[in-house]
Every structure is written in C-alpha cells, then in structure tokens.
Amino acid sequence: MSDKRPSVHAIGLAAVAGALLVAAAVLPLDAAPLSFFVCPVKAATGWPCLFCGCTHAFAHAVRGEWAAAIGASPLGAALALFCAAHLVITALRLCGMRIELPEPRIGRTARIAALALLAANWAFVAARVRGAL
Q1: pLDDT digits (tens, 9 = 90+) for 35-61
Q2: Taking the model in full, what pTM does it have?
Q3: Which residue range forms the structural domain that includes residue 85?
Q4: DSSP string covering 55-121, please?
C-alpha cells in the first residue's frame, strides 16, 4: 500500500476496534446488562450461531487470557487480535510512521479458506456447547 496517512475508513474501523476492546475490558459478562443477552439462535435451536463465544473470547483476550479466549471461540480470539493490531497500526500511521502494508488479495482460494476456517470454528464451538469437548 502507500505510506500516506490512513484513510477515513481505516480510522473509522480503528475507532470501532478500540470501542470493542474497551467494552470487552470494562463490561462485566456475568452481570447486567450483558447477562440478560442470550444468543437467539442457541436459545431457539440449542445449537450455537457462527459467532457464539466471540464476546467471551474478546473479554478473555483483552485480559491476556489467550487459552481461555481460544477455548471460548478461536474466531473471536483472532478477531480480538486483529482489532488490536489494526488499532495500533492505524495509530502509528496517524503519528506519521511509514508502515508498508501488503495489498490484500482475496481470490477464490482465500474465500474457500475463510469458509473452511469459519466452519471449523463453528464445529469447535458447537462441540464445546453440546458437551463433546
């Protein structure tokens, strides 16, 4: 990519990433209001949705509890890590640091790999929720 300042989109995504990480750090999962929220897919079917466990994974990740974060949801742990990395890189670029980022190439293979990883994450979370792990 270029060495210019980050785009408004990158800054917006960094703001959202920061808000998610701060919320995961300060909001208690076991107390109101978050304790009132239940995954509607899991409540209706008994099976987790594709993103079940991501909230707990974020909460564990911001506390440095990586084993617990991965145990809650490998996808959620990876998303927390990517949010933190994007936030740091965007902040450094805003300060004028020249950081070369590779051009994203999202071809057919990458899309298939992403779907396979999403399916593997869901299978892991489903096995954990259903008591197989």
Answers
A1: 667 778 888 888 888 888 888 899 999
A2: 0.82
A3: 8-129
A4: HHHHHHHHTT-HHHHHHH-HHHHHHHHHHHHHHHHHHHHHTT-----PPP---HHHHHHHHHHHHHH
